[in-house]
Structure prediction request, 225 residues.
Amino acid sequence: MDKFTRGFLYGLCLGDGCLYKQPTNKNVGLTVGHGPKQLAYLMHKAEKLRSVFGGKPIKTYEYTSCNKSSGKKYTNFQIRKVDSYFNQMHKKLYQTGKKVFTREVLDFLTDEGLAYWFMDDGSGSVSKNKQGNLCGCMLRIATYFSKEEAEIVAKWFLDKYGFIVKFDIDKRSNKVSIRFGTHDSIALAKILQPYIIPEMEYKIKDVLNYTPRVLGPVNTGEDIV
Prediction:
């Protein structure tokens, strides 16, 4: 497996992809699921996987899930792929029985792999001040890490891209998600842009279109969100 293909596969699995051991098959399987609004994205992933492993077109399965608290039902779509290469990926990603973020795994990522992780869990936004003027922008990756994992991820972004990661802590779970300041968000969006498919461009569009304020003699700097 070349490093570019490997980078894509790890990016796929750091996001919404899930590797699982099959009781009736010695090889590990990959499942990826999305809702109706992201069906085109899921079908793109199916075709991308087919280009890697070959074989017949990967089928898309429709299923219904239910929110136990509200009783509301949701329609979802899923693809599945089994291959021996996923065996070694499972050993690295599920060392403790659940998905873990280690420096070794992160180092497998290419810019393209990072883009797939971002398309799954990322988002972009701009902020306005009290006068209604744009004053900053932000990219966020809403994967929830332990504090230890978040620090590993932050160090990886700093070492690889020179980006400073900021933490947001969910008070209910004590889990950490990450975000980037204005300048790093713009730089990251430009790195991801070549790999973002048209259906997911909305996640970086506002950040790419954001123009930093021109600093005047009184300003100490633009707001960083």
About this structure: Helices lie at 3-14, 39-53, 85-93, 103-107, 111-121, 147-161, 182-192, 202-209. Residues 127 and 133 are 8 Å apart (CA to CA). The first strand starts at residue 18 and ends at 21. Residues 215-225 have pLDDT under 50 and may be disordered.
